[in-house]
Amino acid sequence: MMILWMCVVAVTLPVFTNQQCLTKDDSKPSTDPQARLALFRGQQEFSLAMLQTVNHMYPNQNIFFSPHSIYQAMLLSYFVAANHTEASIKKAIFLPKQQDKLSTMQAYRLEKFFQSMRLVNGSDSYELRSANRLFVSQQQKVKECMLELFKDEVQQVDFAKSAESAQVINQWVANQTKNNIKELIPEGSISETTQLILTNAAYFKGLWKSKFLKSNSRKEIFYINSSKNAFVTMMRQKGTFNHAVSEQLGAHILELPYKGDDVSMFVLLPPFASPSGITNILKRLTLKTLHEIIDEDSMIPRAVEVSIPKFEVEKSIELVQILTSFGIDMFEDTADLSSLTDATGPRVRFTDAVHKARLQVDEDGTTAAAASA
């Protein structure tokens, strides 16, 4: 888990006097010191809820997705929503009731600033990036204050040229994910009535702190559970890694750090004889137990013989049913998405939400990419 130690940084929001985009009085600058922490906590809670929901919907399938990417897309939806739709999204993405939209925007901009600094400073050990885009129909007039807030994210396109518009969006996603995610927007999904497509693209590439030797990799039986197995390439190494046994989760926990020690993969292994081991772990996994897992004091360095599969997986998920189950009404005919544009253009509606993610784990490290729209 990435941990950022930061000095005091001031990110100033513009003061609006003519239009009130986010609150009833945007002229009052927000200085909530807890807003960024609340946003981070909200993303963690949303991630756990998504994981449990998707696992429940697809109990017999391998699941892979990026909660971060989906959360970013939902955060954009929250910013463009108003009234009852804004309230339903705010609750679903676990933002505090007392935190107003202006404070959340400040936290969003602060996180965006830190990400830009990470990209500028760079790292020889890993690459981590995430970008948002609001593709807006040329039929719409974006409010001036929202253009100021989202000057890096707003891009107006001619959705009447459906094939060209899809190509523009898909190419942007491909560029952000280094061609790991292609064709996010399917052919025929855009028409001249399309008014807005909110998009996130995320990418990660990290090298293991302790690489697996390719000479040690070989085809072996991988036990999915006590009654199912598959023949896969297994990577092996012996070394000292942080390890713990959680009675609360009913699982062995192993931390595999990437170079730089800022980011790690955590492997949760259920008992071999349990046919529903993963499901049981997810039911018990809460924000509290998650924090206990990533707490350095809870893990003990010890000699471990590691054996994990070498694999590559790509998954697509339709999000409408999942997000609706969270109580979000943004896909309803009565949804209010009026915060981004003025009333002169056609009414803005969301009719679909898609997500695609790709993961590759090999002897050198991990490459992961995801996109949501």
Automatic annotation (TrEMBL):
Residues making up the signal peptide according to the UniProt record: 1-19
Keywords: Protease inhibitor, Serine protease inhibitor, Signal
Molecular function in Gene Ontology: serine-type endopeptidase inhibitor activity
UniProt key word Plastid: no
Highest taxon above the source species: Eukaryota
InterPro entries: Serpin_dom (IPR023796), Serpin_fam (IPR000215), Serpin_sf (IPR036186), Serpin_sf_1 (IPR042178), Serpin_sf_2 (IPR042185)
Pfam families: Serpin
Record's GO cellular component terms: extracellular space
Residue span, Serpin domain: 48-373
Family from the record: Belongs to the serpin family.
Name of the protein described by the UniProt record: Serpin-1
Record organism: Nilaparvata lugens
Lineage: Eukaryota, Metazoa, Ecdysozoa, Arthropoda, Hexapoda
